[in-house]
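#struct-pred

JT: dropping the chains for the assembly here, can someone run the whole complex?
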Amino acid sequence: MTAYDKLRTVSTATAATAMFKRGFRNQFIQNVHPLSANQPVLVGPAFTLRYIPAREDLNPLSVFQDRAHPQRKAVEECPPGAVFVIDSRKNPRAASAGSILVTRLMKRGVAGIVTDGGFRDSPEIAQLAMPAYHQRPSAPTNLTLHQALDINVPIGCGDVAVWPGDVVVGDGEGVVVIPASIADEIADEALEMTAFEDFVTEKVNEGRSILGLYPPTDERSRDDFAAWRKARGR
Amino acid sequence: MTAYDKLRTVSTATAATAMFKRGFRNQFIQNVHPLSANQPVLVGPAFTLRYIPAREDLNPLSVFQDRAHPQRKAVEECPPGAVFVIDSRKNPRAASAGSILVTRLMKRGVAGIVTDGGFRDSPEIAQLAMPAYHQRPSAPTNLTLHQALDINVPIGCGDVAVWPGDVVVGDGEGVVVIPASIADEIADEALEMTAFEDFVTEKVNEGRSILGLYPPTDERSRDDFAAWRKARGR
Amino acid sequence: MTAYDKLRTVSTATAATAMFKRGFRNQFIQNVHPLSANQPVLVGPAFTLRYIPAREDLNPLSVFQDRAHPQRKAVEECPPGAVFVIDSRKNPRAASAGSILVTRLMKRGVAGIVTDGGFRDSPEIAQLAMPAYHQRPSAPTNLTLHQALDINVPIGCGDVAVWPGDVVVGDGEGVVVIPASIADEIADEALEMTAFEDFVTEKVNEGRSILGLYPPTDERSRDDFAAWRKARGR
Amino acid sequence: MTAYDKLRTVSTATAATAMFKRGFRNQFIQNVHPLSANQPVLVGPAFTLRYIPAREDLNPLSVFQDRAHPQRKAVEECPPGAVFVIDSRKNPRAASAGSILVTRLMKRGVAGIVTDGGFRDSPEIAQLAMPAYHQRPSAPTNLTLHQALDINVPIGCGDVAVWPGDVVVGDGEGVVVIPASIADEIADEALEMTAFEDFVTEKVNEGRSILGLYPPTDERSRDDFAAWRKARGR
Amino acid sequence: MTAYDKLRTVSTATAATAMFKRGFRNQFIQNVHPLSANQPVLVGPAFTLRYIPAREDLNPLSVFQDRAHPQRKAVEECPPGAVFVIDSRKNPRAASAGSILVTRLMKRGVAGIVTDGGFRDSPEIAQLAMPAYHQRPSAPTNLTLHQALDINVPIGCGDVAVWPGDVVVGDGEGVVVIPASIADEIADEALEMTAFEDFVTEKVNEGRSILGLYPPTDERSRDDFAAWRKARGR
Amino acid sequence: MTAYDKLRTVSTATAATAMFKRGFRNQFIQNVHPLSANQPVLVGPAFTLRYIPAREDLNPLSVFQDRAHPQRKAVEECPPGAVFVIDSRKNPRAASAGSILVTRLMKRGVAGIVTDGGFRDSPEIAQLAMPAYHQRPSAPTNLTLHQALDINVPIGCGDVAVWPGDVVVGDGEGVVVIPASIADEIADEALEMTAFEDFVTEKVNEGRSILGLYPPTDERSRDDFAAWRKARGR
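RK: done, full complex below.
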């Protein structure tokens, strides 16, 4: 079971706590939401795109006729399995991308897409099989306010540092960024924590108090958990 | 029919207007949303928890090993039927609570939970049978930014004063706080208003103009309403 | 096929790009959302209502007994087919309108309603067959913070200038305002663009790269599009 | 001594409290600051200008060649002694006006100028003998984001309703708007309150406790104040 | 030389860095400014006042006739030498306090006052000999939006946790809060750091590069600093 | 007279209008203020520094021991005469730089410094002879929230695109960025416009109406201006 496989089974909340234990307090991308409640879980290494504010003379529609335009180039270069993360400076007043580019990413096997701005064609993107996260829908073309500049450099996204290769994990709650150097240990610990949380949830649903159980300061809680794991093979 | 029973049948909008008539202009908790469109109506007395900003030395994960930690203590002490209201200083950048604590509250018979911050494990909370309201999902553990301090003291939540025992009413729109001293009269008046609004809605759906009907400045409107009430036994 | 018919088949994103080409960069109403994911498409000429901040002495509940109150008057005067657009100064802390007025508008044949504030009775409005857009739900009566003042004057809504008669187009993403003077040409161009975007989406779904296709800098793309149009009669 | 004379001797804080006693809770223009610490006190009736968002085709620089352009017309029509109040929708990203127009207003005998946006040429305006208030400096011409539309209609400014003829009072703290109908009584009461506050300040500077003094629940405080007034002829 | 004496000679920036070294990243009160550029340095233990949102029925002007009203009581009880810190929930739309109360605090020997809201009578407070910090001026009486509730409990102020007895340090830049438990060591280290920063500033003004000097990775820098200290007796 | 010489005599407002005429609507750095009212005018080519959000493991204080740390390196490499512009993502909650680095820049002959965040040691920086602009003072070390990453790449600063070599102009109002390609023509036109504005200001101060004068639609205005220029040799 790879780190990615493990991370596909844990929540962003659990991963955030595992990182908090190691002194990482700011790895949850703020104010970014899944476009669809039903979209699959997101796991993959970050591939980034950096936007700066658009300037009118540099951003007519004709720029897209250049095959080397960074937005289009990035869409064609993002590796399959990677997560396309855009630094839109938290500005959703013009789009970060639209459904055609997002569909192309999906067809190329990209794992998902995240912007701290907004997508256009958001109802269409919400129907795609690929997970997507943004702040809010935004119809205006990206050229209105954003100029694509750099591909796969370190960026900020929703107040979080995103370095190329960091592991991006998304669920129905939002997105966390796991520094590449600790991805394995976070995956391991989060997997363990998830087993414990599942156990606790079961017990709480049976009516048990959280005192002594969560965290398991009572010996009984630890014993019960050990038995529970054994019984379930986890 | 108790005040609570009556309030279960009226909307937060109607209750807000009944309070506006008495000079209460600021009883709607701002920017707080139901986690699920299908959650039941929320009515109950406020039981509060106050957070202040977390300080790193006081908020390692180990604090939860203390059974007297205010967050955990509050979860075990909140009376059945009460509404657990958290003052998170409108900060959703770290969680106010997660699904295990919310499940425990539900199992203990608590009526619902409201924070002006955000919940973690929000997709799981959205599946629970207990109504929950927050600003937006937030994966980071509450220790990242919040320190639980006081149980059942007057607080602010979403710019509204919440005094322990105030009656909290929530629906698909949001949450209003009814001062305990006027809960009975608001329940009575809102019940009456709801009957009238139902009547008006019916008439408007039949094609009638709102002029003279809403408010009923025409005598005909008042007569029709009287007949309507009689016919429906309301 | 009228301009309105055409606009009913294009997205706000496409219309925004057509306007961007003509130098209109700010026609998307910011931070305004459909109340229901299933509501029909919105197209119609703007009919406006202007609010200013409420003053306590001028806004008791009794003002609604005046049949000439601008909010009520506007609801009865908005022409069938028009879009009722409210300037709430982007303030959702009190309602712009509630379900009874919105139902009346619907019964009168109005095409839809947009506010840059919030609606009360929002769950009921979400069930109506008429499209509605706002910032977020808001239970308090509009008198709490808004005073209706002017009917059908130029306003701002979500940072966009809305002149009476401008063409308002809304979809699942949000709302754009098309200046009346260019509505016909935008409708024409957006219709053309939509055909091309549908073609591109089909090709991308078949696995083609966006380079040379979107925009169609390759001759092959242009040829394929010509064939596609012919085959589909678009 | 006219109401205006009286208001020239009281603070905005005192006037705000006199209004609060009468149920007016929202008459302080929020987030508006004097351009100069040394500017004179501001008192006069409101003369208003309403802006809406600018649209590119309607706001080239050439619009100013029209003598009937509302911004220029308003500057020439504002009565001497009045206060020029601009509704800039709290948007300081482009200017509300610049030093030439403000100088013209000053030369015409206008009492002062207030915008909830920003002024350009703000260092020059700060040197003028006329009081001016804004949110923050803003170099871009107003045409960039603002279109002047209506002259002397009711507006919002900094979240306050401003009706033409309301009495605007400004000091080093900011600006309050006194509804015309109560200006006389507010002037009277604020004058009285100011005498009392001056007395209290003197006593507090002599070392007296505020308890029993402010408010004067002790008989001694009331006696001392009576004597103080007599001695000072206030 | 006491810790307080030392802290009177260091900047908030230096104290913030000394705390950063110990893992305290969030001790600078955000968005709070000195009322006067000339006010003295502020050092003293925190004495706190907690506000919650005001409710209309509980906050008529007559509440101040009660000598036990927490705001007035706190003003009379704050110990000489302490710093009066108010949790106004970062809301400057109504005042936290006015010049009479602040003057009383000054006369009682209190070291200074800080709110994350705003003061009324701010021009008068700016003239007092006691340092004061707020977000922005605010004329409306505190009863408009704030209800004083608790005296000397832990609070949040400008997103910082403030525990009674924490050491508050303010200069022309703003205010930092030093946890009581580390105040001595921070005072010591900040004093040392200040000596070094003074040395570096002198060298930089003489034209030296910061490389190798700041931090002193070059041996020469360390030698020069040792000589500098000796020469100046620091 | 070089373009820089010319730009030293014009205001940011005038330069903004000259750019507006050419379709540049967004060249004023938003929400950035001079640290001192007395600082000299700022003119020079942009030299940029890009920050991303800091991550705890990458930003201990020890990073500054590396001479290649981008913040320190940039300070030593910024050319004399250039303007040091920092992309702090509009986040003033930790510092962009402090007085030692700014002093070093000044000693190296740099023309000035601009950040859309905040400076620490701001009272000291305000005393320097070099112009500096920021959002608000900020004591925490930059490592708390900012990681210096790139030197002299295109960035965003206060919502404006800043490309290396663009001409940065600052006065008492704020800062505009002039694209390098149009710097000469903007300098020429702004110089002309300034002459006209000086003429208009003089006439307005003499009591003339702005109608027909500003803009000079009356022939008399144009004649008077011609005479004025001749008389003054401008």
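JT: nice. Chains F and B do not touch (no CB pair under 8 Å). Chain F is about 30% helix and 20% strand.
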